[in-house]
Amino acid sequence: KRACQDEGSAGTSTAASGISKDKEARKRRLRFCLFGDSITQLAFAEGGWGSQLADAYSRKADVVLRGYSGYNTRWALQLLRFPDLFPADCDMATIFFGA
Questions:
Q1: Active site residue 69
Q2: What is the pTM of this model?
């Protein structure tokens, strides 16, 4: 309770103030996940579409890059077995393979 008072919240916790978890979740920054082959991997190269996306949404969204040069759809599906590799809370995702 003291830590809350020090932060200027007058000793009220999130639950006590009636703020729902949904509102708390909406306060977080958006997350865009880019998954694909070499085109995605190079998205943050100079002038790339990933860097342009990150610039357009600066201070509004985090852009997470998962690009694997040379991977095809079959190999990419194998990556999905590793859940820690991809954020579960993406607000927008792109998937590009075989371009």
A1: no
A2: 0.68
